[in-house]
Amino acid sequence: FNQRGSIIGALTSTYLLEKPRIIEHMDGERNYHVFYMLCKAPDDVREIGKLGSWETYEVLNRKEGGTVANLVSWDDDKEFADMHQALVELGFTPEQRAQLYRIFSIVMQLGNIQIEWNNSEDVSYIGNVDQLNLVSEMMMVESDQLTNAMTTTKLTVGTEMIERKLSHAQAKGAQKTLAMHIYLPA
């Protein structure tokens, strides 16, 4: 800044987003702080995403066989309040803030959809339909569309479109990929 308070220079920092962290993190680490912060948000904000305690979300507990870091120096309640106020000061409308919180919540809720495997029929299926319905409603899509996005693929053979069921591992991979794609535009 110059003597009159005008900006005369700036510096930017570039951060790379670790996409895989959205769905799995290393032992002793946490997922992105915003998820934990939302779980500590006021009731009206948590209601937007139907959020409970962070311990109930698979993407926040999914780690490589260890523990989730307990950050003594990090106050999720205060950090959420600061983030929320920053969004207000940046001019985000209440609707825009709610939409942003909804997107982050969808990622957490999506990770709690259980994809099961039926050996006798050789197909993946959704094990907790209530959770599927919750996420579908939040995403404003039909539940069968979300189910198909996670459990099937479409192949073009000649002029025909063939739908094929995914293996359990492929369906879990599709679920993780969907969560990453939802988070990135936010």
From TrEMBL:
Q: Where are the transmembrane segments?
A: none
- A Pfam family found in this protein is Myosin_head
User: Which molecular-function annotation in GO is an example for this chain?
Assistant: actin filament binding
Tell me the Gene Ontology biological-process terms attached to this UniProt entry: actin filament organization
Q: Does the keyword Secreted apply?
A: no
Entry-linked InterPro entries: Kinesin_motor_dom_sf (IPR036961), Myosin_head_motor_dom-like (IPR001609), P-loop_NTPase (IPR027417)
According to the entry, every stretch annotated as the Myosin motor domain falls at 1-186
One GO cellular component assignment for this chain's record is: membrane
Gene3D superfamilies per the record?
A: Kinesin motor domain (3.40.850.10), Myosin VI head, motor domain, U50 subdomain (1.20.120.720)
Q: Which keywords describe this protein according to UniProt?
A: Actin-binding, ATP-binding, Motor protein, Myosin, Nucleotide-binding
Q: What family name appears in the similarity comment?
A: Belongs to the TRAFAC class myosin-kinesin ATPase superfamily. Myosin family.
* The protein, known as: Myosin motor domain-containing protein
